[in-house]
């Protein structure tokens, strides 16, 4: 049995295993047990300006598999139904699509990145394969599947073709989500493929399976402020004006909220968000929703000094043992409960304890209960709704 293997470290991000049952090369003599050419990884790591020749790639891969270039091409076409040159062209155009959307590079620069000589050749090849010029492709409305950032897409006035049930949950009763298909949890690749999207948005860097369906762009979660994320996605989808208009409207609401709650929280008083779980309390970081963005950025409040580095820096926040809560308690405490795994029962026990009743925030009636269904999210539409609730809760002190 002849075998060709490439394990870890393969720059094609996959394994190509060929097994021959006999010396002859017939339809039944070769079994492909697994073929994953990892187009996304190939595009990002193999295509360099100095490596333009399709023949170069064929020789590179055939060498790794221990095959002659001719035999490699024969097997490749028999199994995939296309020539290696066609496959490579598709990989390059797919990478070009991604670069057209996410980068500010010129056409010449993109051409060099994906392995073409210049922008003119890329433009001709792009139109030949996509049916549109690169400029027309950028401006064409995209059929989108978003595995994250649904609230951002909706804020831009767009309706994606598909998303997950989890993303849909905060908008379950809203007519703006009518017609959006659920692609499952875990995500179903056949369901996504059935929607025939032009673009898939995700937070995961490793998305080669998605890239085989449509152009896939990963936007790491939590690295940017919500409004900066909206700007970025608006630019990505050629909806800059819509993003700017939404942000301008939200800024007006922020200013109004600041006026309405002015003086309620003293300059030296602290504010923080706490979530009660079955085995601990979590002081929530600004990048993890629960209304933290509005409290610290919109309203300009500060956490207790004992929590500052945890809730304003990197990371998810601070895990607090129940008996150490007084060390980290704020003057104003926004509190949510993670009801699963004993969280609801633990919250009841904690709030009936002498330790809880002794907190300054409790004695001064500065505990603000927040509902996770509303506050867990960090997208534009959610923070807008949260700001209204937070303003109402704080004004309760007046």
UniProtKB/TrEMBL annotation:
<dbReference type="InterPro" id="IPR018062">
    <property type="entry name" value="HTH_AraC-typ_CS"/>
</dbReference>
<keyword id="KW-0805">Transcription regulation</keyword>
<dbReference type="InterPro" id="IPR018060">
    <property type="entry name" value="HTH_AraC"/>
</dbReference>
<keyword id="KW-0238">DNA-binding</keyword>
<dbReference type="InterPro" id="IPR051313">
    <property type="entry name" value="Bact_iron-sidero_bind"/>
</dbReference>
<comment type="similarity">
    <text>Belongs to the bacterial solute-binding protein 8 family.</text>
</comment>
<dbReference type="InterPro" id="IPR002491">
    <property type="entry name" value="ABC_transptr_periplasmic_BD"/>
</dbReference>
<dbReference type="GO" id="GO:0003700">
    <property type="term" value="F:DNA-binding transcription factor activity"/>
</dbReference>
<keyword id="KW-0813">Transport</keyword>
<protein>
    <submittedName>
        <fullName>Helix-turn-helix domain-containing protein</fullName>
    </submittedName>
</protein>
<keyword id="KW-0804">Transcription</keyword>
<dbReference type="InterPro" id="IPR009057">
    <property type="entry name" value="Homeodomain-like_sf"/>
</dbReference>
<feature type="domain" description="HTH araC/xylS-type">
    <location>
        <begin position="42"/>
        <end position="140"/>
    </location>
</feature>
<dbReference type="GO" id="GO:0043565">
    <property type="term" value="F:sequence-specific DNA binding"/>
</dbReference>
<dbReference type="GO" id="GO:1901678">
    <property type="term" value="P:iron coordination entity transport"/>
</dbReference>
<dbReference type="Pfam" id="PF01497">
    <property type="entry name" value="Peripla_BP_2"/>
</dbReference>
<dbReference type="GO" id="GO:0030288">
    <property type="term" value="C:outer membrane-bounded periplasmic space"/>
</dbReference>
<keyword id="KW-0732">Signal</keyword>
<dbReference type="Pfam" id="PF12833">
    <property type="entry name" value="HTH_18"/>
</dbReference>
<feature type="domain" description="Fe/B12 periplasmic-binding">
    <location>
        <begin position="143"/>
        <end position="398"/>
    </location>
</feature>
């Amino acid at each position: 049995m002849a075998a060709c293997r490439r394990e870890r470290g393969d720059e094609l991000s996959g394994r190509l295993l060929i097994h021959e049952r006999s010396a002859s090369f017939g339809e039944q003599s070769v079994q492909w047990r697994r073929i994953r050419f990892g187009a996304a990884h190939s595009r990002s790591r193999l295509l360099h300006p100095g490596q333009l020749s399709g023949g170069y790639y064929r020789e590179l891969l055939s060498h790794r598999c221990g095959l002659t270039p001719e035999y490699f091409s024969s097997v490749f076409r028999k199994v995939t139904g296309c020539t290696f040159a066609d496959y490579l062209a598709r990989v390059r155009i797919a990478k070009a699509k991604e670069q057209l959307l996410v980068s500010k590079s010129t056409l010449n620069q993109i051409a060099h990145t994906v392995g073409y000589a210049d922008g003119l050749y890329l433009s001709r090849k792009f139109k030949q394969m996509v049916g549109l010029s690169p400029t027309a492709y950028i401006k064409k409305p995209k059929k989108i599947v978003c595995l994250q950032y649904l609230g951002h897409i909706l804020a831009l006035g767009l309706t994606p073709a598909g998303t997950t049930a989890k993303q849909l949950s905060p908008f379950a009763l809203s007519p703006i989500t009518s017609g959006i298909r659920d692609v499952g949890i875990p995500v179903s690749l056949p369901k996504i493929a059935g929607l025939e999207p032009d673009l898939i948005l995700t937070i995961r860097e490793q998305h080669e399976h998605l890239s085989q369906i449509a152009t896939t762009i990963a936007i790491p979660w939590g690295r940017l402020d919500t409004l900066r994320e909206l700007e970025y996605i608006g630019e990505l989808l050629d909806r800059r004006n819509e993003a700017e208009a939404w942000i301008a409207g939200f800024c007006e609401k922020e200013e109004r909220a600041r006026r309405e709650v002015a003086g309620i929280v003293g300059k030296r008083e602290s504010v923080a968000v706490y979530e009660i779980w079955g085995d601990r309390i979590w002081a929530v970081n600004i990048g993890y929703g629960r209304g933290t963005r509005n409290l610290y950025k919109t309203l300009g409040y500060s956490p207790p000094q004992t929590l500052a580095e945890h809730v304003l820096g990197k990371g998810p926040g601070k895990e607090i043992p129940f008996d150490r809560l007084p060390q980290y308690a704020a003057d104003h405490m926004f509190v949510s409960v993670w009801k699963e795994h004993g969280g609801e029962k633990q919250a009841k026990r904690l709030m009936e304890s002498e330790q809880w009743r002794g907190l300054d925030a409790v004695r001064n009636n500065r505990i603000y209960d927040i509902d996770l269904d509303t506050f867990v999210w960090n997208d534009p539409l959610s923070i807008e709704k949260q700001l209204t609730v937070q303003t109402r809760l704080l004004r309760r002190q007046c």
